[in-house]
């Protein structure tokens, strides 16, 4: 194979991975958009919702605003989710190729490192959109600060110190992304391997890839993805709460104290609310969200790779 032909094939693979990842991200984020909004309201303890639970929170959003309010901020979420997932999944494939280990132990470590690096790469590129989306999702109809994406961006840049406003909460997000993305990709790949090795007749489809490798059936894809989400979110959740408090700090004078820095915010949350009601506030909604989010995301990515003739099979 000539060098130019190899470059063209590699470029085609990257483009297909970007498409597969983007579609997977769009499907997974839309699936859990209502859960995302109530999670943000609970994490940051909005005055109208902080005393409510998950399902009572849903009822209150519909009563106070309307049904479509469950999807508030979802447009900017889509603008962020598509490139985020596209970059994350594609980066994972690239990092995994470069970190291939010679032993099984190396493979485990490198799988975690590839996932962590992919998550950090995607989050760093798309973080400002995450901040804007959080601001739009946090406001309620009766008390609207921003009319849309453009207004929120301009207002934050003008009134909150320029570009740094869009990156408030960046470091806890980056630190949280290492265990979150690392464990999610590692857990999915590990469960995928174990499913194919020990229960191929029940968890694998009859279809095989062009290289003869096994592929998981759709229920198995969803199961492995859901388990990966549950494991990953457990490790990273306190930093996710910290990030969210920092992102939303400047929306209310009473919460400006969370804008001072990551360690300071962690300390304030712990002192004022403790571990369960502070650092793990909204964890129940997070599990309800994380399982279908990861299940749909990983399943759709694997399905899209098969549709685009990217070999997702595994030879045992």
From TrEMBL:
InterPro entries registered for this protein in UniProt: GDC-like, MCP, MCP_dom_sf, MCP_transmembrane
SUPFAM superfamilies reported for this sequence: Mitochondrial carrier
UniProt GO cellular component terms: mitochondrial inner membrane
GO biological process assignments: transmembrane transport
Signal sequence residues: none
Entry superkingdom: Eukaryota
Keyword match Transport: yes
Subcellular location as annotated: Mitochondrion inner membrane
UniProt xrefs under Pfam families: Mito_carr (PF00153)
Record keywords, A-Z: Membrane, Mitochondrion, Mitochondrion inner membrane, Repeat, Transmembrane, Transmembrane helix, Transport
Membrane topology: Multi-pass membrane protein
Transmembrane residue ranges: 109-129, 170-188, 287-304
Solcar repeat intervals: 12-98, 106-194, 216-307
Family: Belongs to the mitochondrial carrier (TC 2.A.29) family.
PANTHER family according to UniProt: SOLUTE CARRIER FAMILY 25
Name under which the protein is recorded: Graves disease carrier protein homolog isoform X1
Species, as recorded: Pogonomyrmex barbatus
């Amino acid at each position: 194979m000539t060098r130019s032909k190899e470059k063209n094939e590699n470029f085609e693979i990257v483009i297909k991975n970007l498409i597969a990842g983007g579609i997977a991200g769009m499907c997974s984020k839309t699936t859990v958009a209502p859960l995302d909004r109530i999670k943000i309201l609970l994490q940051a303890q909005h005055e109208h919702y902080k005393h409510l639970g998950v399902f009572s929170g849903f009822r209150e959003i519909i009563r106070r605003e309307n049904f479509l309010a469950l999807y508030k901020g979802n447009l900017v979420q889509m603008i962020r989710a598509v490139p985020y997932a596209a970059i994350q999944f594609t980066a994972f494939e690239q990092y995994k190729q470069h970190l291939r280990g010679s032993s099984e132990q190396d493979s485990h470590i490198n799988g975690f490192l590839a996932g962590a690096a992919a998550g950090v790469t995607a989050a760093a590129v798309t973080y400002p959109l995450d901040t804007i989306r959080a601001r739009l999702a946090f406001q309620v109809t009766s008390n609207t600060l921003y009319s849309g994406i453009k207004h929120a961006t301009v207002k934050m840049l003008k009134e909150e110190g320029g570009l740094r406003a869009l990156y408030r909460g960046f470091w806890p997000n980056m630190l949280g992304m290492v265990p979150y993305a690392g464990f999610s990709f590692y857990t999915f790949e590990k469960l995928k391997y174990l499913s194919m090795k020990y229960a191929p007749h029940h968890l694998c489809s009859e279809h095989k890839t062009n290289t003869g490798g096994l592929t998981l059936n759709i229920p198995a894809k969803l199961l492995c993805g859901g388990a990966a989400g549950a494991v990953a979110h457990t490790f990273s959740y306190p930093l996710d709460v910290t990030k969210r408090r920092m992102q939303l700090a400047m929306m209310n004078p009473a919460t400006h104290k969370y804008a001072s820095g990551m360690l300071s915010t962690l300390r304030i949350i712990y002192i004022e609310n403790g571990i369960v009601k502070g650092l793990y506030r909204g964890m129940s909604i997070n599990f309800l969200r994380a399982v279908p989010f990861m299940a749909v995301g990983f399943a759709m990515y694997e399905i899209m790779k098969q549709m685009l003739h990217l070999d997702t099979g595994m030879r045992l």
